[in-house]
TrEMBL record:
<dbReference type="GO" id="GO:0046872">
    <property type="term" value="F:metal ion binding"/>
</dbReference>
<keyword id="KW-0460">Magnesium</keyword>
<comment type="similarity">
    <text>Belongs to the FPP/GGPP synthase family.</text>
</comment>
<dbReference type="InterPro" id="IPR008949">
    <property type="entry name" value="Isoprenoid_synthase_dom_sf"/>
</dbReference>
<dbReference type="InterPro" id="IPR000092">
    <property type="entry name" value="Polyprenyl_synt"/>
</dbReference>
<keyword id="KW-0808">Transferase</keyword>
<dbReference type="GO" id="GO:0004337">
    <property type="term" value="F:(2E,6E)-farnesyl diphosphate synthase activity"/>
</dbReference>
<dbReference type="GO" id="GO:0008299">
    <property type="term" value="P:isoprenoid biosynthetic process"/>
</dbReference>
<keyword id="KW-0479">Metal-binding</keyword>
<protein>
    <submittedName>
        <fullName>Geranylgeranyl diphosphate synthase type I</fullName>
        <ecNumber>2.5.1.1</ecNumber>
        <ecNumber>2.5.1.10</ecNumber>
        <ecNumber>2.5.1.29</ecNumber>
    </submittedName>
</protein>
<dbReference type="Pfam" id="PF00348">
    <property type="entry name" value="polyprenyl_synt"/>
</dbReference>
<dbReference type="GO" id="GO:0004311">
    <property type="term" value="F:geranylgeranyl diphosphate synthase activity"/>
</dbReference>
<dbReference type="GO" id="GO:0004161">
    <property type="term" value="F:dimethylallyltranstransferase activity"/>
</dbReference>
<dbReference type="InterPro" id="IPR033749">
    <property type="entry name" value="Polyprenyl_synt_CS"/>
</dbReference>
């Protein structure tokens, strides 16, 4: 645990350095761009850092020495951390970009209990008395900031790989590129399902929802960070295979927990309104399971209300009760348990360091039992 906390501090320091450098570059272009720097700094100043930690422990699983769990290399080995710190920080910037774009697509007002990026820039428009449509200004500005963050993530990754053996660097870049393609594809499939679900039979909807889970979140939240870290360390095929065998099912469980929180989460903890996914019309695995069990009239009511941004609290509570009564919540909890079991069993006798295996098991518990 101590090693994880210390590494999170290193990542934050690397992010702060990057933002100071890029912020200065933007200010030289125009002081008006300080708005983007300020929003980016706030966005990158928090979060759980799960992707950074999976990246670090993927690296430690291959490069680490067999010693007490959670120890970072000694001070005289600190230069060895530069590539993995840069890669983990690049993942956090990529994640921030994805959140900015995701909030635009979902028209979300909040992120981590604070106004989402497009809402913050919308407020800037109003506070300064600018002309034109404030909402459009906010969304346009957020879209550009998300693109800027994507570019910075690539730059930081390339910087971290300069002193890594060429073969390791190539494998790392390849994995990062695949991740970027898959998560973008997953995002598109997610918005497609919100609009096209009625064109597919009930027997297809669960499979299609599972596909969104895999590509929008599961692979990029856990599997890709693990493999990126391991690739920097020069992992062999067996080590990569073990980490993928752990990462994919754990990533699925991670997203399924997120789907439950999107419907039933406490807004004081999640930082988003209760039932937000219901207002956004998310066609998740939870919804697909509920639809399979509901009677025709109850299913029709769910379909009619799901995706209505004007749902009031009473309607949200009614939908929550309907979903619980269908048995879908218990079914999904069972799926989460089975996926976690699949993930943890992949570490049995895996050719990875003992300390990393122990920490990955701890992380598996943290990401699937969370309340936010």
């Amino acid at each position: 645990m101590a090693g994880s906390l210390r590494f999170v501090d290193l990542v934050q320091n690397r992010l702060d350095d990057l933002l100071a450098d890029r912020g200065s570059a933007l200010t030289r272009i125009s002081p008006d761009l300080d708005d983007l720097t300020r929003v980016a700094r706030d966005l990158l100043g928090g979060g759980k850092r799960f992707r950074a930690l999976f990246c670090y422990w993927g690296w430690q699983a291959v490069a680490g020495r067999e010693r007490e769990a959670d120890l970072l290399p000694d001070a005289d080995d600190s230069l060895d951390l530069a590539p993995i710190t840069a890669a983990a920080s690049a993942l956090e910037i990529f994640h921030a970009a994805a959140l900015v774009h995701d909030d635009i697509m979902d028209n979300s007002d909040l992120r981590r209990g604070r106004p989402s990026t497009h809402r913050r820039l919308e407020a800037v428009h109003r506070e300064r008395g600018l002309r034109g449509d404030a909402e459009r200004y906010g969304m346009s500005g957020a879209l550009l900031l998300g693109d800027l963050l994507l570019g910075w993530s690539d730059e930081l990754l390339d910087d971290g790989l300069r002193d890594v053996p060429l073969e390791h660097a190539r494998a790392t870049r390849d994995e990062f590129a695949v991740m970027r393609t898959e998560v973008t594809a997953g995002q598109y499939l997610d918005i497609l399902e919100e609009s096209s679900w009625h064109l597919h039979g009930d027997d297809e909807q669960l499979r299609r929802a599972q596909r969104v889970v895999l590509y929008k979140s599961a692979k990029y939240s856990v599997e890709a960070p693990l493999v990126i870290g391991a690739s920097i360390a020069g992992a062999d095929a067996d080590q990569i295979g073990a980490l993928r065998g752990f990462g994919v099912p754990l990533g699925i469980a991670f997203q399924l927990r997120d789907d439950l929180l999107g419907v039933f989460g406490d807004p004081e903890v999640t930082g988003k309104p209760s039932g937000d996914d219901l207002r956004e019309g998310k066609r998740t695995v939870l919804i697909a399971l509920a639809r399979e069990s509901l009677s025709g009239s109850a299913r029709n009511l769910l379909d009619e209300l799901l995706g209505d941004p004007e749902l009031d609290d009473e309607q949200i509570r009614m939908l929550q009760s309907t979903i619980r009564a269908s048995g879908a919540v218990d079914q999904l909890e069972g799926v989460i348990r089975r996926e976690v079991e699949r993930a943890t069993s992949a570490l049995d006798a895996a050719p990875l360091t003992r300390s990393a295996r122990a920490e990955l098991l701890r992380l598996a518990d943290a990401v699937t039992r969370r309340e936010a």
